[in-house]
From TrEMBL:
Gene expressing this chain: gpsA
Keywords: Cytoplasm, Lipid biosynthesis, Lipid metabolism, NAD, NADP, Nucleotide-binding, Oxidoreductase, Phospholipid biosynthesis, Phospholipid metabolism
Gene Ontology MF terms in the entry: glycerol-3-phosphate dehydrogenase [NAD(P)+] activity; NAD binding
UniProt: substrate binding residues: K105, R257, N258
Binding-site positions, sn-glycerol 3-phosphate: K105, G138, S140, K193, D246, S256, R257, N258
Keyword Ligase found: no
Function noted in UniProt: Catalyzes the reduction of the glycolytic intermediate dihydroxyacetone phosphate (DHAP) to sn-glycerol 3-phosphate (G3P), the key precursor for phospholipid synthesis.
Binding site for NADPH: W11, R33, Y50, K105, A142, R257, V281, E283
EC number: 1.1.1.94
UniProt-annotated catalytic positions: K193 (proton acceptor)
Similarity annotation: Belongs to the NAD-dependent glycerol-3-phosphate dehydrogenase family.
Protein name, as recorded: Glycerol-3-phosphate dehydrogenase [NAD(P)+]
Amino acid sequence: MHIVVIGAGAWGTAMAMSAAAHPAGHAVTLWARDAAQAAAMQAARENARYLRGVPFPPSLQLASGDLAPLVAQAQLVIVAAPMAGLRGLLVQLRGCPVPVAWLCKGFEAAADGQSFGLLAHEVRAQAAPDLRAGVLSGPSFALEVARGQPTALVAASEDVGVRDALVRAFHSPSLRVYANDDIVGVEVGGAVKNVLAIATGLCDGLQLGLNARAALITRGLAEITRLGLALGARAETFMGLSGLGDLVLTATGDLSRNRRVGLLLAEGRTLDQAVESLGHVAEGVYCARTVAQRAARLGVDMPITKAVVALLDGRLRPQDAVALLMGRDPAEETTTP
Ligand SMILES: NC(=O)C1=CN([C@@H]2O[C@H](COP(=O)(O)OP(=O)(O)OC[C@H]3O[C@@H](n4cnc5c(N)ncnc54)[C@H](O)[C@@H]3O)[C@@H](O)[C@H]2O)C=CC1
Ligand SMILES: O=C(CO)COP(=O)(O)O
């Protein structure tokens, strides 16, 4: 298969490396928007900025510049930019006849800063409705995938041909790819777990204890599920890899950039300092407010998410967030409001 991966951050690079090492011998090209970065990676045979010390498979090709000729040869196109870059890239891909899948996890920020933002499949419906498209998601730190450590992902699309293409491209002895037709559920899980990972990072940074962390994860999953159901997802998706799986990984694994934001805030760093020190995108920072706005519009209660938004906005101190969440009225343990 000929696969083009657009975006050479940590995750695009790791997935391109995984596909290039696939026993089926795919021809994989990793496209970077910065020509100098592409040339440096080609020379060093590694992505020294994002995945230092993990060598590329010999067959992995690097590219930059005009996307059109590359896409014209591809049998599968992977968009590996952050959410903020998705719309522009999908517009460029309009008319592409082969399956397209994105890897980003989040909500697009609303352009006017007032209305709510969109999930990736909703962006695609506006920007490039002709595309045969889907998402690849699930619990997966880029470094571990680049190293070939065992990982399981979900390929979600309403189009069975897209799901099949993703399985053929990436399913390998080190990477299991499960198919799912609930793209809404898969995208909601991937987006909201980032917000909740900020909360658990904060909880652990404040040394509130393991009980508190387990409570946050479990009640966080209830929040994800409530929002997902209101948006039309299936409940069972949230017990799968893109829901519970990714929430547990991101909330507890120190490789998570979103969790690290929470840990840094707990140390007393400002949000700007925390984001600056990551050197990577932390989607939860950008989409927390959107999640809260969209939930409010749907009448969905998301107290942990609301507390994270207040913290990120500087309206609440970490200690006060704990008191706020613990001080809520007693409630039934249900997922539905
Ligand atoms: N790093 C990880 O372990 C995982 C990341 N993701 C998701 O994948 C997305 C990308 O994350 P990372 O690669 O980790 O971010 P990163 O911060 O490592 O790199 C982002 C890359 O995207 C490039 N980029 C930004 N806008 C672009 C555009 N318009 N066109 C092309 N390239 C553009 C930047 O130049 C940079 O190379 C995020 O939505 C993230 O949530 C999902 C699963 C795992
Ligand atoms: O999505 C991820 C793991 O599945 C990566 O999470 P972070 O963006 O928090 O590093």
